[in-house]
């Protein structure tokens, strides 16, 4: 049977295992994503974007740090209760020291990132909601990291999530995203199983071409320092939203 997003209890997402496996140090793939996205954000004047969205934020803070260079408010929209609890703990109470090297790299590649980690996260507003319920055209920029391909096994539903992502920004708004390439159904920690939808640069381009202009899709190789989830690297995207 094909697993769809609504078949999964996202409140049980294993935050501690996920962070331990992926974000306790800056892996080469993180550095590549940060370098790619920093070039994108350097093209935007500081504070240019009044309101941005991190579409399915999860517990990964570096996309929020990157966006702080250009965005005055960043809505971190997330459905899973465990991820919301982590975001609230980090942004409202205490910050894990493991995010400091990510901030240092983001700021080195784009000096418009605020000088402290706390300052970079100050624009973040945590929103506990299903991203599919977001109103259309509410944002000037939308960012998405490892979401649409990691919440379903159904390609049609993957494409629906991508369309919902584009719809959140007004026509002419900016888009930046990262996807795991050829991600199968995967495990986090010793036991938990989560849906994956294999995509690649060609399929990402196919989905986004009718929705965008100035689309740029690139690939980075698999990172051998990360757990072997069965993926073959990452697909990175920037573009400008058309009316959807």
From TrEMBL:
Keywords: Methyltransferase, S-adenosyl-L-methionine, Transferase. The keyword S-adenosyl-L-methionine applies. GO terms for biological process: methylation. InterPro entries: NNMT_TEMT_trans (IPR000940), SAM-dependent_MTases_sf (IPR029063). Coiled coil: none annotated. GO terms for molecular function: methyltransferase activity. This is Class I SAM-dependent methyltransferase. It comes from Streptomyces iakyrus.
